[in-house]
Write a structure and sequence with these properties.
- The chain is built from 17 helices and 17 strands.
- By secondary structure, the chain is an alpha/beta fold.
- It has two domains: 10-82 and 384-434, Urease, subunit C, domain 1, CATH 2.30.40.10; 84-371, TIM Barrel.
- The strands form three sheets. Strands 1, 2, 3, 4, 5, 14, 15, 16 and 17 form a nine-stranded mixed sheet that branches. A four-stranded parallel sheet has the order 6-7-8-9.
- Helix 14 (357-364) packs across helix 16 (405-411).
Length: 460
């Protein structure tokens, strides 16, 4: 039942006016530490100029809103919560979803992905792949994502056009690609992008040092210095496979974690992606340096990289967020799906209480925001933070009966029940329909790319 004073017709007005009131039977603000269970009933939030201005019982907000001619809407049967934060991915690679499956990481990369990227990746490839990725993330509840891929300037334009918040870490490698020829050019172009987007409220630009096996000591040291100078994040694939550690010890006499510590890379700005394999020494270094970790359970499992003992990382006091990785190695960018898998795999170590639903939901929202260094702006519903929030419709057979909201969000297919998304107070998804992306054009351009990719593969 819709509480008195609510206005369904206010939906369209709120989307365009930049201010409004939205309420629902259940709200999970995620404002408590480490997933503290707080459920608000029949509450709403008032937003204006991109920020949350007030959180209170919906009827109070609606009454005041009506007097001030502010659009108001109450979403019956929904749960309101912060938008999800996808801490790692490669958006442009969405065009490769299903292209090379059931393969181990190095074979997948070296024999299939890298050859295709070398032949076909260009600005248009990244533009269209990124649009596909952004559309999928918006439809499944993600409002902020982190990315590392070629032509990051093109991704930046696609994210801004869609109204999507993003941390874009421009790639840094020693070998050539369609975007740059060497580490010096990657850094030069990346720093130019950082300067160009300095005042964009939706974007944060950082360094995407690909991995210890693709970046030299000299480049890592330079990135560490530059990141400190401009106060920018560093994201790196780290200890994803056991072979990576073996190779590092043979070449450098230490694990990749220890090597990056020696080179000055690790610290509060550093985001270590995967961290599947680690020992007590690695864990101590990560903890003492204040490095964050991005857990990507789906790609780790699919590529047979191994299982990251997430409970140990959390117990050591590390900030941990969730990442889908790319659609080429997952094959979904639904972060609710990733959160469910993370919770289930954590319990396979013999403890059914490991990574409970509330803690997992915290990782997908506030925890992820903290990993990206954006905890003061997003990740929870609090006055003064950005109005980035989503609505999940529980009025379907897969979401009923509803006893515990967090459990329902984590252990069911909640990504399919996201109906609305707001980013900075702008409604970018309404009743499952994208507001800033042409879905039909998206499907047409991806069909064209599928034919190009199939033709290229047939010639190999």
């Amino acid at each position: 039942m819709t509480p008195p004073g609510s206005e369904k017709s206010g939906a369209t007005q709120a989307a365009s006016s930049g201010c409004g009131v939205v309420g629902a039977p259940l709200m999970l603000p995620m404002s408590g530490a480490n997933g503290e269970a707080l459920v608000l009933r029949n509450y709403g939030l008032r937003f204006e100029a991109g920020l949350i201005r007030e959180i209170a019982p919906y009827n109070e907000l609606a009454e005041a809103g009506a007097a001030a001619d502010i659009p108001c809407e109450f979403l019956d049967g929904h749960i309101l919560l912060p938008g999800l934060v996808n801490c790692h991915g490669h958006a442009g690679m969405s065009l490769l979803r299903g292209y090379a499956d059931d393969l181990p990481l190095q074979d997948w990369l070296e024999q299939h992905i890298w050859p295709l990227e070398g032949a076909l990746v260009n600005a248009e490839f990244v533009e269209h792949g990124s649009q596909l990725a952004i559309a999928e993330m918006l439809q499944s509840g993600t409002t902020t994502f982190s990315d590392m891929y070629f032509f990051p300037d093109v991704l930046a334009d696609a994210a801004v056009a869609a109204g999507m918040r993003a941390q874009i870490t421009f790639p840094v490698l020693e070998f050539a690609s369609a975007w740059a020829n060497n580490a010096e050019e990657y850094l030069s172009k990346g720093l130019a992008l950082m300067d160009a987007q300095r005042h964009n409220e939706l974007l944060r630009i950082g360094f995407g040092t690909h991995a210890p096996y693709t970046v030299s000591d000299q480049t890592f040291q330079r990135v560490a210095v530059l990141a400190a100078e401009v106060d920018a994040p560093i994201q790196v694939h780290l200890q994803e496979t056991a072979a990576e550690i073996t190779q590092s010890k043979a070449e450098h006499g230490c694990s990749p974690v220890e090597r990056l510590q020696r080179l000055g890379v690790l610290g509060p700005r550093a985001q270590a992606v995967h961290m599947v394999h680690f020992d007590a020494s690695d864990l101590l270094i990560l903890s003492e340096s204040g490095t964050s970790v991005v857990h990507c359970p789906a790609s780790n499992a699919k590529l047979a990289s191994g299982y990251s003992n997430i409970s140990q990382l959390i117990a050591a006091g590390l900030a941990v967020g969730l990442g889908t990785d790319s659609a080429a190695s997952n094959n979904t960018l639904d972060l609710f799906d990733t959160a469910r898998l993370a919770a289930l795999l954590a319990k396979q170590q013999g403890d059914a209480s490991a990574l409970p639903a509330w803690q997992c939901l915290h990782m997908a929202t506030r925890g992820g925001a903290e990993v990206l260094g954006m905890g003061a702006q997003i990740g929870s519903l609090e006055v003064g933070k950005c109005a980035d929030f989503i609505a999940v419709d529980t009025r379907n057979v897969a979401m009923q009966p509803l006893y515990e909201p967090a459990s329902q969000l984590i252990y069911t297919a909640a990504g399919n029940a996201v109906t609305h998304s707001w980013i900075g107070g702008r409604c970018v998804l309404r009743e499952r329909r994208l507001q800033s992306i042409d879905n039909n054009a998206l499907l047409e351009q991806n069909a064209t790319w599928r034919e190009r990719i199939l033709q290229w593969r047939a010639r190999q």
